[in-house]
Amino acid sequence: MNILTFDSNEKLNEAGANIIAGLVQTQPKAVLGLATGGTPVGIYERLVSDFKRGLFSFSQATSFNLDEYVGLDKKHPQSYYAYMHEHLFHHIDLPAERAHIPNGNAPDPQAECERYDRLIADAGQIDLQLLGIGHNGHIGFNEPAHALIRGTHVVDLAEETLKANARFFDSVDEVPKQAITMGVGTILKAKTILLVVRGADKADIVHRALTGPITTDCPASLLQTHPHLVVLLDKEAAGKLS
Ligand code: F6R
After folding, report:
1. Cα(132) to centroid(ligand 1), Å
2. How far is ligand 1, taken at its centre, from the CA of residue 140, in Å?
3. What's the pLDDT at 92?
4. Model confidence, pTM
5. Does the CB atom of residue 139 touch ligand 1 within 6 A?
6. Looking at residue 242, what is its pLDDT?
7. Residue with CA closest to ligand 1 atom 10
């Protein structure tokens, strides 16, 4: 595990963007696993501005997003489809047919999960999986549970997740109660995992995930078993690490 701590958001964004850009420069056909939420926004901004300077291209790359809300139209401003287009896809040359996001509006969600897993399997292996972390230790939307699911599945979002994501909606009642998420088996199969965490409110969960027992009660603790885990933290999120 390689933990890097930054004293400014700007430096953290630069480091995150450089890791992703470096991969597509050396491996143009890279398969990227992408995340949404507040955490990666600055990294995507930096990636877009470097892309616009002509430093690299995504024209041969493929991407798979971690998750999508169930039952939210993709045109809804808070769908992860809308998020990814606003923050990244609209600004870069990644071909639309290779930018994959689970379809949260599929008539048969189970069939959609199976379709998504087949697409990931057909692409080979995810080269770099970008992750944030929930306050409860979720990765993707794999919430704390007795047992975790290997592949893509429909999940009931935890109360804590609904409350945390209410900031993006008018009220907590508007947050969809379910999502389709990649499973932990798929996440852990990525060649490299890039976990990014910001803020003092995540210091406890960062400490628990990276130094505590490996348990399904804290899905992010499974990342300790990954051979190529890179963690980018701001100094607030790193506050409880010695
Ligand atoms: C997003 C995702 C989630 C978030 C996590 C942190 O695609 O899968 O696991 O990474 O909820 O969210 P933020 O970054 O908003 O604190």
Report:
1. 5
2. 7
3. 98
4. 0.97
5. yes
6. 87
7. 132
User: In whole angstroms, what is the distance from residue 53 CA to residue 50 CA?
Assistant: 5
Q: What is the mean pLDDT of the chain?
A: 97
Rounded to whole angstroms, the Cα distance separating 29 from 235 reads 34
Question: Is any ligand 1 atom within 6 A of the Cβ of residue 37?
Answer: yes
Distance 130 CA to ligand 1 centre (A): 10
Q: What is the pLDDT of residues 147-200, one digit of tens each?
A: 999 999 999 999 999 999 999 999 999 999 999 999 999 999 999 999 999 999
d(CA 184, CA 202): 20
Domains and CATH numbers, the chain: 2-234 (3.40.50.1360)
Residue 67 Cβ contacting ligand 1 at under 6 Å: yes
Quick check: CB of 36 below 6 Å from ligand 1? yes
Per residue in 109-138, pLDDT (tens digit) is 999 999 999 999 999 999 999 999 999 999
What sections of 105-240 are H helices per DSSP?
A: 109-122, 159-165, 184-189, 203-211
**How buried is residue 119: exposed, middle or buried, by Cβ count under 10 Å (0-12/13-18/19+)?**
middle
Angle at 78 between CA 73 and CA 81, to 5 degrees: 65
Residues designated as active site = 67, 136, 138, 143
Closest to 68 measured CA to CA, from 38, 19, 34, 22: 34
